[in-house]
Amino acid sequence: xxxxxxxxRHLVRRRGQEARLRCSPMKGHSHVYWYRQLPEEGLxxxxxxxxxxxxxxxxxxxxxxxxxxxxxxPSILRIQQVVRGDSAAYFCASSPGQTSGNTIYFGExxxxxxV
Amino acid sequence: ILNVEQSPQSLHVQEGDSTNFTCSFPxxxxxxxxxxxxxxxxxxxxxxxxxxxxxxxxxxRISATLNTKEGYSYLxxxxxxxxDSATYLCAFDMAGFQKLVFxxxxxxxVSP
Lengths: 115, 112
What we know:
Oligomer: heterodimer
Largest sheet of chain A: 7 strands, mixed
Number of strands of chain A: 11
Structural class of chain A: mainly beta
Strand content of chain A: over 45%
Radius of gyration of chain B: 13 Å
Strand content of chain B: over 45%
Order of helices and strands of chain B: EEEEEEEEEEE
Radius of gyration of chain A: 13 Å
Structural class of chain B: mainly beta
Order of helices and strands of chain A: EEEEEEEEEEE
Number of helices of chain B: 0
Largest sheet of chain B: 6 strands, mixed
């Protein structure tokens, strides 16, 4: 059973470009979470999605960031018009359900560098 | 603002030593406490999910306890090995649907 798969692992973008990060959850998991780790900081919650629904996006910056988890295909975290401060590691996680007490499995992360 | 504190920040022990770390979290609105082991360039590896006051969980040489009334959890490693070297993270489920608030971790280095 493959784990949470993220791609690309490393992405370099110039300021003003768009970044798209993809996440395929573990097989059978319908709940996806995105977390961000800024330099010298801990992991911070960004958004929680189920298939075709955003459940909680309270951790997402108000502008330029969006996330989706379509009926078919991976979850996408999209950052428009990237700025240097968006440089971070973005981690996707998945779980089989939203019941507290479920294990949440993380991917290996996507490292975004904005130059 | 929810704070999850971990101590110590870093720890250097010799092979064979036993060690423990602390995770402190808010004692109100508790849903679950997660422990992860994180090696550089890898995904955080789930160790335990703890939901009940007094919970004790064990996985090999690693065990954890939970006190939700006073808001802390301990992670113990018995007979540390070099391969235990990693950052150990705890995360507090603040909303009941696994929206996790992470501590900054305890970095463990085990020397042979």
